[in-house]
Queue: 3 jobs
Job 1
Amino acid sequence: MEPSVESPSSSSHPNQGPTSFMGSPPLSSPDSDQRFWSSLLGRVDSLLEQRNAKSSNLNTNKSDRAKRLKEDSLLLMRGFDSVGYTLSQLSNNLDNALQLAVAMATKTSSLARELKSLKSNICFMQERCAILDEENRRLRNGVSTGVKPEEDDLVRLQMEALLAEKSRLANENANLTRENQCLYQLAEYHQLTSQDLSLSYDEAIGMCLDFSSPPPAIVEGAEGQGQGQGRAEGQGQGQRQGQGQCDY
């Protein structure tokens, strides 16, 4: 502030010098100098105040601008975060959709294969039904108009198969009948032998325990035993004959 104050004074004194030599008006009074310096000081103060106000305004503007920039940067960061989160969700959704599409494609291919196999089976069944319808029609026509020998191959083959099965069943029935007869004879023979053995056992027990019987009774018992042995031999021959029949 001092150089600016001194500069007018220095400039005023040279001006006053020539005026005094040139016959200008007399020197200014102290009151006029004081007014001049006071006005100059007021002007300088106003300029300084304006400068300070401008600097304060600039500082406030800078601080407001910095705050706005900071808030804008925070908003941008939040926006970028939300955009990144949305993009991650979209990528996850795209991955899920891709997996679902792949699964649907595989399922579609499997269904297409199944449909193809079903179509082939349906075609085969249709052909088979057509053949059976033709055979039924031929059989109906043959029954109504009389079947020709050359057109009766299927019926002939079926009848031959039925006759062969009938003969086989007849042979099995005959074999089973013979086996049943042999078993029946064996059962009868077993029953007879068991009865004879029980009788001979009773006779043997009676012979051994009858001490008071006379000697002729013993001879009769021996004769009865001989008869029992003869009967057993006859039954043995019958059993051998029955076994021979069964083997036949």
Job 2
Amino acid sequence: MVGCGARRETYTVVGDDGHVVEPVDDFLAMCTDREYSPNTIRARAHDLVLWLRFLAAVHVELSAVSAEHVDQFAGWLRRPVDAGRLVAADSVFPVREATTVNRALDSVYMFYEFLARRGVKVAAQLVVVRRRVGGEDRSFLAGIAPGTSAVRPTKLKTVKRRPATLTDGQVQAVLDGCVRLRDRFLMALMFETGCRIGQALVLRHEDIDTDRRSIVLLPREDNVNRARGKNRESKEIPVRRSLCDLYVDYLFAEYGELESDYVFANLWGRAGRGADVY
């Protein structure tokens, strides 16, 4: 569920009975207070929904879990077979990548670290940290003492992969395939500056200086489309004249008399959303 009416986008989790799961809601509120990205909070909420579904499937209460349940959860995420269903071991292929499973496990551990700070005893079984004191390792609950780091025993091995890249010819093919100047400028902007789609969608006309041939990426909290760049630091990026010319062509040919601060706006002058692009 998405919280409405707040200045920042918030999320919560409701149970099958329609009531808010209060410990999870408090955890997500903490994430919001720490100004985590809305996408990060949404991902944490989704991970904890999966955790609650798993606990319901194995008939275990949220406050009665053990490290063994976390291990089982990791396997369930990879192969979520319904309880009591008989299947061949080699017929069930992993449905989630190891990196996705590790992110979900990280969300679970973060949640119980949060509960540990509240004094919830069961969290001590899941959250163990080590701190060097006089050459000796001692165990503590997460966050109790400064200088501690969490040891999270359940984690799948991952294979580092090189990110996929496009050749100059492939980039040009994408640009040539764009029918509208808006789409062509959006693609060219991301290719040349390396900005993310979230950063591009919150770009405003004041951020583009065609005389200096530069674009400024600014983190903002007041975007009406709730989009937010992952990078929280502002930076100025020099661009080529061809990108500035494409921006000007887009303004004259398609943007017209639309009154909006945003470069990529819809027909009502509001900033575009990620769903509009995809």
Job 3
Amino acid sequence: MKPTPNILEEQNLALSFCGCGFLGVYHLGSAVCFKRYGPSLLKRFSRTGGASAGSLVSALLVCNDSKLIECYHDILELANIVRNLKYGLLTPGFSLHKHLRMLIEKYISDDSHSKADGKVFISVSNFTSLTNKLISQYRSKEDLVNSLLASCYIPFFSGIWEKPPIIDGTVSSVFISRKKRITT
């Protein structure tokens, strides 16, 4: 049997954050811990990726890691806003998609697409076939922002980006096959 490589010796690592919806604040906490307590390990990650909230943390870690804690506080503030709405996310006139866009644009600088290109892998799902696609090439800041928003697709609340339409990358992970019954 071939011995498994020792992670302490590996130089070309990848970091992945799963889709976790409103628990993305935990991913931010993990990213802060990597930065604070494992900077030498963090430097060995040549690429990072994720779906949904995980994609947001991946992009922030690569493009603007000095703002992790500030972003954490902004996410908690957004959660408090939603919590205080009469019907939460379902409150007429409230758009989580709009708030996410504002947060992403606050922390993603104009040159972030260059930093993220080939390093940040954003998981999205084809809306029609439910097949997964990883986006890792970005032509502009807007391209990166739209890819992140597509990965955070919330049914009935978010727009659908690109043709063919793509949505949250977590969807294709859950719906492996349309021919078989799946229990999650």
